[in-house]
Write a structure and sequence with these properties.
There is one protein chain. With 511 residues, the chain is an all-alpha fold. Helix content is 80%, strand content 1%. It has 17 helices and two strands. It has a two-stranded antiparallel ribbon. The longest helix has 40 residues.
Length: 511
C-alpha cells in the first residue's frame, strides 16, 4: 500500500497523497500534541510547583526554560542525525526516552532535580520534533495537500494547548502537580505502536556529516545568550551577563563561519539567503515569543490574582486556543489567492489588538477582558504561523526538508525560551520594582514575597490576617502593573513581526 496515488508526472502537478498518508499524519500529531500540552500544563502547574518546591525567581524561570533551551540547542543536530539514520527511527527513540523521563520529572523532590529532568526532556524532545515536520514534506508532495497538512500540524499545537488547561486543571484539582508530566505516557504509547505501521521511513540521500565541533558551537551559542537575557531581565545589567552575551555571540559567529566553509555543513546556510525562508523563520520566532509570553503571565493572573481554580482558569483560555485552530485552518484557502506578504501582516494586526486589550483592560476588570483579548490574539497567531510554517518547507528543496524542519522548530523553541525569559523576566522585574512591602512583614518573609507572586501568596497565607491581606494586595497590584508594561512590549514585538513579513515574504517561494 503506497502513500501517494499515481497522477501525471510529466507536468507540474505533484502526486497527491492517499488515505493512508492522512492516517499517518494523525499519528505524527501525537508528539506535537504532547509538546503543546506539556508547555500549557506546566504554565498552569507553575503556581503549585512554586508552592511545593519553593524555587527562587531564577529557578522558577529555569523550570520552564530548561526544556526548550536544550531542545532548541539540539534540534539541528538531531535533524541531521534523523537525515542520516532515519527520521522515523529518531522519532521512536525520542518518544521512548521522553516517556521514561516524564515519569522521573513527576517524582522530582526539588526544583534542581525538576530542572534537570526538564533538560533531559529537551534532549529527547529534540529527537521528536524535526521528524514530524520533515516527514510531512516527504509524505505530502502536492503543495495544496501539504499546505493543509501543515495547517493541521500547526493546529495540533493549539489543540494541545486548548486541551492542556482542561486536562491539567482536572489533574491539579485531584492529584499532585507531578501528574501533569505523567500524561506523556498514554500519549506516546499509541505513537510507538502506530508509527512503525503507518509512517514510512525517510532519509536524506546525501546528508550533512555529523560534526561534533558544530554541535558544541550551537549549544555554546544558545545557552550563554539566553542566560544573559534572563540575567538582564531579572537582575539588570551586570558585567557577568554582558560577558555571557558576548561569549554566545562569538560562538554564533564561529558556528556560521564553520558552516559556510565546510564542504558538507551540518546546516546549509544557503537556506537563509531565500527571503521567504528567513522571513518566515523570524515571523515564527516573534509570534511564539508573543504567544508564550502571554501564556506565562495570564495563568498566574487568573489563578493567583483573580483566585480562579486551575480547572476554571484553563477553561477560560479554551476560546482563545479554539480561535488559533480555526484561524489556522481558515487561512489555507485564503493563502491560495492572496500573497503571504499581505495575509501575514494583516493577521498579526489581530495579535497586536489582543495585547493592547490586555494592557488597557485587564487590571482590576476580572477574567472576561483576558478571555476576549486571547481570542483576538489567537486569530492572528493561528493564521500567521500556518502560512509561515508552510513557507519554510516550500522554500527549501525537498532534500533539505530535515534541515528546514529543524530550523523551523529551533525558531519555535527559541521563541518559547525568549517569551519566558524576556516577557517573563520583564514582568518579574516590574513586579519586584513596584512591590511595596508593608512595614510589619518580617525580613525573611519580605524576601520570599519579592521573589515571585506565588511566594507572596504563600507568605501572605502564613502571616496574621491584617498584615497578610496588606501584603497580598500590594503584590497583586505590583503584578498587574507588570502585566500592563509586558503587554505593550508584546504588542511592539508583533508589530516588528508584521513589518518583517511585509518586507521579506514578497520573495517567491519554490514549489
Amino acid at each position: 500500500m503506497t502513500h501517494v496515488e499515481s497522477v501525471e508526472t510529466g507536468g507540474t502537478r505533484a502526486p497527491r497523497a492517499g488515505a493512508r498518508a492522512w492516517v499517518a499524519l494523525a499519528v505524527l500529531m501525537l508528539p506535537v500534541l504532547l509538546v503543546s500540552v506539556d508547555n500549557t500544563v506546566l504554565s498552569f502547574a507553575l503556581p503549585e510547583i512554586a508552592i511545593a518546591l519553593t524555587p527562587t525567581g531564577a529557578e522558577q524561570l529555569w523550570i520552564i526554560d530548561a526544556y526548550p533551551l536544550v531542545l532548541a540547542g539540539l534540534l539541528v543536530t538531531m535533524g541531521t542525525l534523523g537525515d542520516r539514520f532515519g527520521r522515523r527511527r529518531m522519532l521512536l527513540i525520542g518518544a521512548t526516552g521522553f516517556a521514561a523521563v516524564s515519569v522521573v520529572a513527576a517524582m522530582a523532590p526539588s526544583a534542581a532535580l525538576l530542572i534537570a529532568a526538564r533538560a533531559l526532556l529537551g534532549l529527547f524532545g529534540a529527537m521528536l520534533m524535526p521528524s514530524t515536520l520533515s516527514l510531512l514534506r516527504s509524505i505530502f508532495l502536492n503543495r495544496d495537500q501539504r499546505r493543509m497538512a501543515i495547517a493541521v500540524w500547526a493546529s495540533a499545537f493549539s489543540a494541545g494547548s486548548a486541551l492542556g488547561p482542561i486536562v491539567g486543571g482536572f489533574l491539579l484539582e485531584h492529584f499532585a502537580w507531578g501528574s501533569v508530566f505523567l500524561i506523556a505516557v498514554p500519549v506516546l504509547i499509541p505513537l510507538l505502536i502506530g508509527a512503525p505501521l503507518l509512517v514510512p521511513e525517510s532519509r536524506d540521500p546525501a546528508p550533512g556529516r555529523i560534526d561534533p565541533v558544530s554541535i558544541i558551537l550551537s549549544m555554546a551559542t544558545m545557552i550563554p545568550v539566553v542566560y544573559a537575557i534572563k540575567s538582564f531581565a531579572t537582575d539588570g545589567v551586570s558585567i557577568g551577563a554582558v560577558a555571557w552575551a558576548l561569549g554566545g555571540i562569538v560562538m554564533g559567529v564561529l558556528f556560521v563561519r564553520r558552516q559556510l566553509r565546510a564542504p558538507s555543513p551540518m546546516l546549509d546556510m544557503a537556506l537563509f539567503r531565500r527571503g521567504s525562508f528567513s522571513g518566515a523563520i523570524l515571523v515564527n520566532l516573534l509570534s511564539v515569543v508573543a504567544l508564550v509570553g502571554f501564556l506565562y503571565f495570564v495563568p498566574q493572573h487568573l489563578q493567583l490574582v483573580l483566585g480562579l481554580s486551575p480547572m476554571v482558569a484553563g477553561l477560560a483560555l479554551v476560546p482563545g486556543m479554539a480561535a488559533v485552530i480555526i484561524a489556522g485552518l481558515t487561512v489555507v484557502p485564503i493563502s491560495r489567492r492572496i500573497a503571504p506578504h499581505i495575509v501575514v501582516p494583516s493577521a498579526l494586526v489581530f495579535t497586536v489588538i489582543g495585547y493592547l486589550l490586555v494592557a488597557f483592560t485587564a487590571a482590576g476588570n476580572g477574567a472576561v477582558p483576558l478571555i476576549i483579548a486571547f481570542v483576538v490574539l489567537g486569530i492572528g497567531i493561528g493564521a500567521a504561523e500556518t502560512i509561515s510554517n508552510e513557507l519554510i518547507l516550500s522554500s527549501a528543496p525537498a532534500a533539505k526538508a530535515g534541515a528546514a524542519s529543524a530550523v523551523s522548530e529551533t525558531a519555535y523553541e527559541l521563541g518559547a525560551v525568549l517569551g519566558t525569559a524576556v516577557l517573563g523576566g520583564i514582568i518579574t522585574a516590574f513586579y519586584r520594582g513596584a512591590l511595596v512591602i508593608p512595614d510589619a512583614v518580617p525580613a525573611d518573609a519580605a524576601h520570599a514575597a519579592r521573589e515571585t507572586l506565588a511566594g507572596a501568596y504563600t507568605v501572605a497565607q502564613e502571616l496574621p490576617e491584617r498584615v497578610g491581606s496588606a501584603l497580598w494586595e500590594a503584590a497583586a497590584s505590583a503584578f498587574e502593573s507588570g502585566v500592563v508594561v509586558t503587554s505593550l512590549i508584546g504588542a511592539a514585538l508583533v508589530v516588528a513581526a508584521s513589518v518583517i513579513a511585509a518586507v521579506t515574504l514578497r520573495a517567491p517561494s519554490s514549489r
